[in-house]
Amino acid sequence: MANPIDDIDRQAREGSIAAIVQILNDKLAQVGVRIRAVFAGGVLQLLCEAANAELLEQSSLVDRLRQILEGISPRNIRRVNINSRLVREHQLLWLEEISRDPENQLLWSQEIKLRKPNIFKRLAIARKDRQARSSKLVLPRTAPPRPLREQRQFQRGIAGGVTLSVVLLAGAIAIYRGINSSVPNSTTTQAVVTPNPEAAAQKISQKTTTSASDSFAQAVRLAEQAVSNGKTARSREDWLAVAATWQQAADLMAVVPPSHPRHATAANRSALYRQNSEKAQQEAQNR
Fold first, then answer.
1. How many Å apart are CA 267 and CA 287, to the nearest integer?
2. Are 219 and 260 in contact (CB under 8 A)?
3. Model-level pTM greater than 0.85?
4. Which of 40-44, 91-95, 114-118, 280-284 has the lowest mean pLDDT?
């Protein structure tokens, strides 16, 4: 069975924001720094909070975050913007708040670019991930008796012959249709060239609504997962994982737009999920 810590490391390398936050909080909890994160516009936005400014000394904290993130080497994440402030009440849209008024919201902010690991480290990481995935595979079944194997091989041979015949027939039909349709139909061409503005606007509206609904639904699924994991959490690592899941669910609820029919519910749940994340972090510190 795979080690849960190794599984979290693998998820972080694959770009899971919740897993990255869990690792960062685990490594920085001993120095009194708490991390929150959102991936927006191709940049990983980090918010570092502590009880006093000394714990957020810029050069040492930036170096430590760079070292941890480059050790993780998350996929498709190269730009990281590090923001710091003193601990305060959670804001539903903290990234929007600090973007609107950075001078009064932040102690400092700095963007860094992560270096890619060298080829040897990439090969070692890939080998480790393959081993982790292979450990989850079920053991192969015992070989069937010889007569049964021969019967299956015969059946596969017949099926293969039928499949090949169907493919050849489909290819012939496609060639025939291609020859007959070489002269484009003027009515069809006009329909393709002249788009329908109303239909395009409707598609955009449907896409926006679907995106908001997906965000709400995904947050609900993560909350259910956090509740389930909280029932079995025992160790410090278990509670940090629960806290990260609650935090990600809260961030998803926070981006549900005002036009969404359940926007008010999303705002309430975002605040509730953040409180649950804080409680889970407190449980992790108690251990």
1. 31
2. no
3. no
4. 91-95
